[in-house]
Design brief:
By secondary structure, this protein is an alpha+beta fold. The chain contains 8 helices and 4 strands. The chain has a 4-stranded mixed beta sheet with strand order 2-1-3-4, covered by helices on one side. Strand 3 and strand 4 form a beta hairpin. The protein is globular.
Length: 203
């Protein structure tokens, strides 16, 4: 399996994390998004959408979109159980992550951390603050009732949401008012074979 990714991206970190959790052999190809590598013809020939991560699966083909890759790798493991109801709940959280959580928390992290808050994006940044805290409110409500997003078991739903939630402060979001999220982050970080974002960059 060959993965194209940039580990500054939480979407790419998700994939690296599940690969390490499952000890799956793979080749990691670094793609410098900030340098425009995803817009070059050689990359667009692999993924015309011009985004990372991308997985080349031997005997299958190319798979794009981080949560699709995450679930494919985890197929047949406790991280993505066979039970249809559990899978539907995992996908529910992953759609939430991509449509509510990531467009605010991840985007504000990018603006603040990688673009150094340019003036032309200030209004956009401020507009996303309310949406980001709404996403955290939804997660906090769920995690008050159970240790992981889908119940008692750590799944790809947690991996998908953990990727950008644990670095939400880099986008200006204060996790202090969210004790259940903080406990959830700590719980994940103490699980066997967990790797931090910084550790993942050296793997």
């Amino acid at each position: 399996m060959r993965i194209y990714g940039d580990l500054r991206s939480g979407n790419c970190y998700k994939v690296k994390l599940i690969l390490h959790l499952l000890d799956r052999p793979h080749e990691w190809v670094d793609v410098d998004v900030m340098a425009g590598a995803t817009k070059q013809p050689d990359f667009l020939a692999i993924n015309p959408n011009g985004r990372v991560p991308v997985a080349q699966i031997p005997g299958k083909g190319v798979l794009t979109e981080s949560n699709a890759i995450l679930n494919y790798i985890a197929m047949g493991t406790p991280y993505y159980p066979e039970d249809p109801w559990t899978r539907a709940r995992i996908q529910q959280w992953q759609f939430f992550e991509q449509y509510t959580h990531e467009p605010s928390i991840a985007v504000n992290r990018f603006i603040m951390l990688f673009q150094n808050m340019p003036e032309w994006r200030q209004a956009e940044f401020e507009a996303k603050v309310t949406q980001g805290y709404h996403a955290l409110d939804v997660m906090e409500s769920a995690l008050r009732k159970q240790p992981f997003l889908c119940g008692d078991t750590y799944t790809t739903a947690d991996i998908a949401l953990y990727a950008y939630t644990h670095v939400a402060h880099e986008g200006g979001f204060d996790l202090g008012p969210y004790p259940s999220i903080i406990e959830w982050i700590d719980r994940i970080q103490f699980l066997p074979r967990h790797v931090t974002l910084d550790q993942a960059k050296s793997l």
